[in-house]
């Protein structure tokens, strides 16, 4: 799986980048045919609480669509965890659909 991490309007340090890659990579445990993952992180309003937005988009085979999750949290780490949890559920449903075909 090819994982791309983008930080929009701020410079992400290597530790945050590695965390995003590690957590997103664990999604392969649920579905091993993921083609690519794109992680976008941005700060909405710097002065407000709960201002970190994380979006993860997964490219999966046999599908014109993407699996997508977007979460807003106090920290990027929390947002990544929330997105990965949401995508786990989506991957389980996607695998069930494939099995039924």
Written overview of the protein:
There is one protein chain. It contains two helices and four strands. It has helices spanning 14-25, 76-100; strands at 2-8, 36-43, 52-59, 66-73. Helix content is 37%, strand content 31%. It starts with a strand and ends with a helix. The mean pLDDT is 91. Strand 1, helix 1 (14-25) and strand 2 form a beta-alpha-beta unit. A four-stranded mixed β-sheet has the order 1-2-3-4, covered by helices on one side. It has a single domain (2-100), classed as Ribosome hibernation promotion factor-like (Double Stranded RNA Binding Domain), CATH 3.30.160. It is of the alpha+beta class.
Summarize the structure.
With 101 residues, this protein is an alpha+beta fold. It is built from two helices and four strands.
């Amino acid at each position: 799986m090819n994982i791309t991490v983008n930080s929009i309007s701020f410079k992400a340090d290597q530790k945050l980048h590695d965390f995003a890659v590690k957590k997103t990579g664990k999604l392969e445990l649920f579905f091993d045919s993921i083609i690519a993952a794109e992680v976008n992180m941005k700060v909405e309003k710097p002065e407000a609480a709960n201002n970190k937005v994380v979006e993860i988009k997964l490219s999966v085979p046999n599908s014109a669509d993407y699996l997508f999750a977007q979460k807003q949290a106090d920290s990027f780490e929390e947002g990544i965890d929330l997105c990965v949890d949401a995508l786990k559920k989506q991957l389980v449903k996607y695998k069930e659909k494939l099995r039924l075909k």
